[in-house]
Amino acid sequence: MHFSMAKACLEAGKHVLVDKPVTPTYAEAAELARIAQRCNRKLMTFQNRRLDGDFLTVKKLIEEKAIEGTQPGCGNTWNLAPHLIDQCMVLFGRPDSVMGLVQNVRQLGHSNLDDSFTIHLYYTNTPRPVTCILRGTLSAVTARPLRFIVRGDQGTYIKRGHDVQEGQMKKHMSPWGPEFGIEPKSQWGEIEVQNENGLPTLKGEYNRIYPNVAGVLEGKEEPLVRWEESAAVVQILQLAFQSAEEGRTLPVPRA
């Protein structure tokens, strides 16, 4: 549905913001990019999980080399995996290969209606090899689900629970209020770096999304998420499904 609606809007002369995953196939994502270029319209992606407070915290730790040599792990495939793949690509770029396991653990509905996945993204052509392990399931019930484990030579960061911003918006909190995106201390992640414990979660930044859309349309800003990045997420997700079907690790084509 994303493809047909976005195509119709672009050809009607409208700029378009598409929720993730932008399309079910990489070919359709590439076709939308060509249509947008032909119609001289802006084509953008709504990828809000780049602005989760816990992910921004992980990104800062890696950029500052606070724990070095990182190997992240995160915990329905088309719904959740696009966020996780996108986050890994923000941190480490395009992976060299992918391995996927996609299952219907609860055996509810059609066998192809998956509720659990494990995806490995392998980075071998980097200064230090990195493996990102992405997991999601509907079969586990826990009050504070595991979000991130980031292991490095100098420490480990462990984060549980969901980002606070969706819950705050459901309570009608203004995205521009002083408390929006701020996580209570009880939800902070645990960190072991030079004998320190407890790390404040950075303020979430969902309130950057629509001002950025306006800035892009006014020619003042670049998109927070480039379309080719979202298309690459779809390509890698398709490879993960193919890997699950064939039972083997697959190389990721170069961009």
UniProtKB/TrEMBL annotation:
PANTHER family noted in UniProt: CONSERVED EXPRESSED OXIDOREDUCTASE (EUROFUNG) (PTHR43708), CONSERVED EXPRESSED OXIDOREDUCTASE (EUROFUNG)-RELATED (PTHR43708:SF5)
Naturally occurring in which organism (per UniProt): Thanatephorus cucumeris (strain AG1-IA)
Question: Entry's SUPFAM superfamilies?
Answer: Glyceraldehyde-3-phosphate dehydrogenase-like, C-terminal domain (SSF55347), NAD(P)-binding Rossmann-fold domains (SSF51735)
Q: Which Pfam families match?
A: GFO_IDH_MocA, GFO_IDH_MocA_C
Q: Does the keyword Oxidoreductase apply?
A: yes
Highest taxon of the lineage: Eukaryota
Single Gene Ontology MF annotation: oxidoreductase activity
Query: What is this protein's record name?
Result: Oxidoreductase family, NAD-binding rossmann fold domain-containing protein
- Print the keywords alphabetically: Oxidoreductase
| Gfo/Idh/MocA-like oxidoreductase N-terminal domain location | 2-44
Q: Where is the Gfo/Idh/MocA-like oxidoreductase C-terminal domain?
A: 71-251
UniProt cross-references to InterPro entries, sorted A to Z = Gfo/Idh/MocA-like_OxRdtase_C (IPR004104), Gfo/Idh/MocA-like_OxRdtase_N (IPR000683), Gfo/Idh/MocA_oxidoreduct (IPR051317), NAD(P)-bd_dom_sf (IPR036291)
Q: Which family does it belong to?
A: Belongs to the Gfo/Idh/MocA family.
